[in-house]
Amino acid sequence: MTAMSPLDHTKYMRRAIELAANVQKYPFAAVLVDPAGVIVAEGWNQSERNPTFHGEIDVINECARKHPKIDWTKLTLYTTAEPCPMCQGAVAWTGIGAVVYGTSIPFLKSIGWWQIDIRAEEVRAKTPFRKSTLIGGVLEAECNALFLAAARRR
Fold first, then answer.
1. Least CB-packed of 1, 19, 65, 92 within 10 Å?
2. pLDDT attached to residue 52
3. Using alpha carbons only, how large is the chain's radius of gyration in Å?
4. Contacts by 141-145 with C-beta closer than 8 Å and gap 24+?
5. 56 carries an active-site annotation
6. From 18, 56, 121, 140, the catalytic residue
7. Residue 6: its pLDDT value, please?
8. pTM, 2 dp
C-alpha cells in the first residue's frame, strides 16, 4: 500500500463527510480508495433497510459488486466513525490494508449512541492473519459535529 500524506487523508475524509448527508439520522459514511487515489466505492449507513448495513458494510459490498477481482490489501477505507466490531471484522475478512476514521467509539458512547465497547484496534490486534493500519482522529471535530447534530435530531 502506498503511504498517503495527512492532506490526502483529509481529502478522502471530506468525501465521507459529504456522503453522510445521505443519511443525516445515522451519519456513518465511507469511501474506499486505491493506491492511485481513485475512489473505487462509496457507501453510507442503510441500517433502516437492514440492521447490518453500516456505512463500512455498504461500501465493502459496493466495491465487491463493482470490482470483483480487486486487491483489497491495497485499499484504504475512510469512514466518519471508528468501525464497530462487526465492521472491523469485515475489514479483516476482506483484507483492506488501512482504515482511517474520524469520530471514536468512546465519543459516540459519551453522547448516547449505542456502541459495542470493543475498539477497532482490539479487533485489528486479534486478527493475526491480516496486517492492517488503523488511523483515528482525522477531521475528528467535523465528524463529531455530524454525530452531535444527529443526536439532537433523534
1. 65
2. 94
3. 14
4. 142/13, 142/17, 142/102, 143/13, 143/17, 143/80, 143/81, 143/101, 143/102, 143/103, 144/102, 144/103, 144/107
5. yes
6. 56
7. 57
8. 0.94
